[in-house]
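Schema walkthrough. Field components (list of strings):
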Amino acid sequence: MTQVQLKNLSKVFSGAPAVDAIDLDVACGEFLVLLGPSGCGKTTSLRMVCGLEQPTSGSIWFNGRDVTTLPVQKRKVGLVSQRFGLFPHMTVEQNVAFGLSVRGLSADEQMRQVGEMLEIVRLSAFAKRFPAQLSGGQMQRVAIARTLVTKPEVLLLDEPMASLDTLLRTEMRQFIRDLHDEYGMTTLLVTHDQIEAMDLADRIAVMFDGKIAHLAAPDEIYQRPANEQTARFMGHSNIFECTPISEGHIESPYGQLMLGVGSSLGAKQPSKAMLRFESIQIEECREAPQENAFSGTITRAEFLGAMMRYTLQVGEGSLTVEEASTIKRKTGDAVTVTLPPEQIWLLQ
Amino acid sequence: MKTNRTVSPALMQNLRDVAEVMPLLVVLLGLFGGAVVLGILQSFGYAPWFGINEFPTTRYFERLWLSSDFWASLGLTLYYGFAATLIGLVISIPLSIALSKKFRVSRTFAALIRLPLMVPYTVGIALALVMLGNGGLLSRISAGLGLIDDPAQFVQILKTHWGCGIIAVYVWKQVPFMTLTLSAVLARKGEDTVEAAMVLGATSRQIFWRVTLPQIMPGIVSASLICFAFNIGAFEAPLILGGGYPDTLPVLAWRYFQDANYAFQLQGMAVVVSLALVSGIFLAAYLLGYRRYERARGRV
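Field assembly_structure (string):
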């Protein structure tokens, strides 16, 4: 297993920095996801780790060895890209055998290893087919098999599920995670899909403008994002102006809010706070007032399948709430919303 | 009894398609097809406007095919055609790969490659005379450098049956065409497979032979078919830069057409039809072979 370190790594294209002095430690056998919007530098970072792109400055280390200038062929990495890069003139079998044949393995040994790998990716029946005769999911499994058969020390996945439909994507996520757990190789995956990142990653590095904005476990990034940009990127949330009034209390457009222990002000001087849509409790209008409970009126109701999304007017502000669609409320209904103190997160 | 007859939508669509391409068909069939039919008729002895009507006779073909000169001319024609196409390909493939990469002077490089496309063929022939002839630039430079005593001693490149000058002009003119055709195929193919091969550990040589070359094969086939057909049909370069008897088939036909005796025009047509036949056989064989190659790779 390989530890991957990026030290002060930068890449500049035509004077514009694509990756701006990032530092990153990926532990042996860790599944790390580089997450960010298009153009944030995540693919460029991955290509530099792979060796397909040379850094403008900084260095890349594998197990304490500087590999910055090491040719891609010698890095012992595997790459599965968004378009898979399958050789269209070769059968599935020949595609998977390619990495072994260029290493000079005997034909018998190649066939044995290819057969085993096709079993693992459940494509034995498709061995003689050409890529054009496969579905998107099958092509992806061929690309993964072709990579894994060479036993890479670091597996790099560049948006490998971007061209798959939603159902297949869910299935392939599970498949990739299972393979990672079985082989235990250090894995870096690039994606702009938050759900994919949270489902797969041990840790997520959220990137904006060539920099890592937040590096942490998925639940921490989702519930306690480092800044407003990360909070907005990681999913739907109510972000509102606030003013600290005392330890553990803030003034908000909805009224005075008590904070949970984890949201203690400490040295922070926040001006904004965040609360996820699904964290807010909504119920019929209630007489007896409670801490962090406010009366509001539904101004919009949207059906999203499993969930209902309500936009509410609460005090001087607007709140968006998501609730299971088994309960249906309608526009104009008076309701009480409770903002759980422990779910309110102050943003820097 | 009354029956309702309706025209099927598919038939209507077919009729509409034919009507849409009719203007083009009329021009093609009238000009190109008409000329082909007339040429074939002449080669079989039909030319009443010259006072000759022996149709149908195979005498012009017999006279041609039974002469050893014809086979010598055919061999020479095919040699120039194959050699120039092959050399052109060998030069164009690396050039097209280079053209698909970005480097410091890549735009200048692309412009230089395109340059011969804009220069007429006859200018290329004139340049070959100025550069490669015994009184030409290369011979004078060689004499100036003391490599030879006199420009006249310079190795004879033009006016030989090796056809170095002819092949040089063909190659000079067709390399840009082949390069641009292949670079278009490379651009469509993208870098994904090359990068995948690199990550899998393949060397540059392995990538070229096992990944790039098979993928640009359709472009190679198209470009070489067009250039080969042109090379065996062109007559200016062999006429001016060739070694004289035996001539290539297009030059032989041209000489018949230029003869004061109109009756030789029919013999010329037999040469042209024979050339078209040979060219067609070679191209069909090439396409069949390529189709088998593609089928083996699941592309057909």
